[in-house]
């Protein structure tokens, strides 16, 4: 009987392994040529029937020329002067890179298939130079005045301190004719490309650049601003600005002025003494307050608030369905430290945050909630652990039920056979117990590195996280061989 039970268990384990473990697919290999053909056909159709115009996310407008090549005039070049291409998945991604290139100002692109070769073009490119090419799309600026630039005069006296208009509590120091000696930075508000394409914002003034800086996450403390657009359309370059070093720009960088924020409105770090709060006005909604807590809800918007009550009042006044707020008592995450949310979710511990939710909203906590004191920071991991256990429990319970049914059926059949034969069967082996491999649910997550940015979903930026984001693997700027399409 023990032998039969062990054999049944082994059979169940093998069946489970077959079901749960992915196996190499020969079908995918068989379909690969067909998929490649479909992609090539789609690219060919895109080339033949391309759109007439395209405007990048930061505002640079292009006119498209289907099946046309713009030879020479390459903005990205080897030391020998030969043009170099890099890969982008689509022609519009190529144009996005043009609008964000920090080098010779980009006035156009040529994108070719197959291969997704993106060639950036300088101001020397023109419609007169276009040549027919069935495998190419060329995009040229509609209005070259977009690259004309602005007044290069320093807007303030050198090293003067000035308040930032429209932003309470901010004072900045102007550094005329200086650039911040700091690598290009990534922020939550825009796609992170490789360093040469990491700049994003285009502004007409230094103050406008600073206003953008104030709204970024993590905290932006300084900016370099290039008014003459010598180094590209994206002329506003925000920096983390931790002890910034100001140096003179090179001739290739053009005219640059910099600014450092030297005074912020510092939030009140004290959590409200009461566990509840009635929003200003008397008839406004009531909030339940959870000190030392954070929540991965969906953000409607974010703004700067001096204290928690101001943040809750902003939620109550919102017409966007605000249900909860998350307030950070530090500015490490960004100057806009009050997050208005339209969902409530599992809360976990974070000593520098305070979470408040409308009293009539459903809310789940990953650890016992205490509004006056934060618990251990391990609550977040315990939450994910419980989810993993629930995921594992289903197959395990199901397997036990199936095993029990198999043992019962086998026992009944053996008993019936033994009764007919008159001789009971004995198990000649001792039951053995071996180690069971443990499935780590957390390591089985899958991340789509090629997923597009969901601009309509602004996930919460966890306060305290100040590290630079990694470059997107979607854009592999590996320089190809120096070449041009035949003219």
List the helices and strands and how they pair.
Blueprint: H1 2-20, H2 26-48, E1 53-55, E2 61-69, E3 86-87, H3 91-99, E4 108-112, E5 117-121, E6 131-141, E7 161-163, E8 171-175, E9 179-180, H4 206-214, E10 222-225, E11 236-239, E12 246-247, E13 257-263, E14 276-278, E15 286-294, E16 298-303, H5 308-317, E17 324-328, E18 338-341, E19 346-358, E20 364-365, H6 379-421, E21 458-459
Parallel strand pairs: 19-20
Antiparallel strand pairs: 1-2, 2-6, 3-5, 4-5, 4-6, 7-8, 8-13, 9-12, 10-11, 10-13, 14-15, 15-19, 16-18, 16-21, 17-18, 17-19
CATH class of one domain: Alpha Beta
End-to-end separation in angstroms reads 82 Å
Q: Which structural class fits the helix and strand makeup?
A: alpha+beta
Per CATH, the architecture of one domain is 3-Layer(bba) Sandwich
CATH topology of one domain: Hepatocyte Growth Factor
How many helical stretches?
6
Question: Which stretches are poorly predicted, pLDDT < 50 over at least 5 residues?
Answer: 1-39, 366-402, 415-487
Mean pLDDT: 75
Q: Specify the helix fraction band.
A: 10-25%
What proportion of the residues form beta strands (DSSP E)? 15-25%
Number of strands: 21
Order of helices and strands: HHEEEHEEEEEEHEEEEEEEHEEEEHE
CATH level-four homologous superfamily name of one domain: Hepatocyte Growth Factor
Broad shape: globular
Largest beta-sheet details: 8 strands, mixed
Radius of gyration: 31 Å
Pfam family, one: PAN_4
Protein name: Apple domain-containing protein
Keywords: Membrane, Signal, Transmembrane, Transmembrane helix
InterPro entries: Immunoregulatory_rcpt-like, Pan_app
